[in-house]
Amino acid sequence: DAKTTQPPSMDCAEGRAANLPCNHSTISGNEYVYWYRQIHSQGPQYIIHGLKNNETNEMASLIITEDRKSSTLILPHATLRDTAVYYCIVRDNYGQNFVFGPGTRLSVLP
Amino acid sequence: DAGVIQSPRHEVTEMGQEVTLRCKPISGHNSLFWYRQTMMRGLELLIYFNNNVPIDDSGMPEDRFSAKMPNASFSTLKIQPSEPRDSAVYFCASSLRGAANEQFFGPGTRLTVL
């Protein structure tokens, strides 16, 4: 079973920041938070991951709360091409399984 | 690099036939994953190889499914005999040094079993 809960869908205006939340209240100390996205008819694409510090790369920022029970993926300037299903996953470095839940379907609107 | 390559991209077959899906991972990656995606069950991990050795096949649904990785640049997922409920998109992914690292997914094979 997925260890995360995400809203099923969200809308965002083009050019605005998209903030996608994820709850992972049962996360353990050695588990990382990963984000992937899947654009329609394509394979999932890695976005970012982190343990407890906030992370930023060319695609997005990941904000993890101090208690690590939740996180937010931020797309700073959403474009129409960011319309996709976004998956939040928690796992440790030794676990074999990425469990993809239903994710959040983000629609970026013109 | 061309990324993860899967073939065929689409496969339509009749119930009872054997189906073989193929995957070429990214050169230099030593971990390979097979996933299945359906509307009902979402994206599920079927099997995971590390250095060509199957590490976890607990996701393989039943004995009709088998996967091999004869060398570092090729893997197959075989279904024999196929059933309509096997209809799905099958993704292959590869990564450097295990499941903890970023996984790169192929474009998938859409399988339809009539």
Quick tags:
heterodimer; A: 110 residues; mainly beta; five-stranded mixed β-sheet; four-stranded antiparallel β-sheet; 9 strands; globular; B: 114 residues; seven-stranded mixed β-sheet; 54% strand
Describe the structure.
- The complex is a heterodimer of chains A (110) and B (114).
- Chain A has 110 residues and is mainly beta.
- Helix content of chain A is 0%, strand content 47%.
- Chain A has strands at 9-13, 18-23, 31-38, 45-50, 55-56, 61-64, 70-75, 84-92, 104-109.
- In chain A, strands 1-9-8-3-4 form a five-stranded mixed sheet, with no helix packed on it. In chain A, strands 2-7-6-5 form a four-stranded antiparallel sheet, with no helix packed on it.
- Chain A is globular, with a radius of gyration of 13 Å.
- With 114 residues, chain B is an all-beta fold.
- Helix content of chain B is 0%, strand content 54%.
- Chain B has no helices and eleven strands.
- In chain B, strands 2, 4, 5, 6, 9, 10 and 11 form a seven-stranded mixed sheet that branches. Chain B has a four-stranded antiparallel sheet with strand order 1-3-8-7, with no helix packed on it.
- The mean pLDDT of chain B is 93.
- The chains are: A mainly beta (110), B mainly beta (114).
- Chain A binds chain B through residues 32, 38, 41-46, 49, 87, 91-102, and chain B through 4, 33, 42-45, 48, 55-56, 59, 91, 93, 98-100, 102-108.
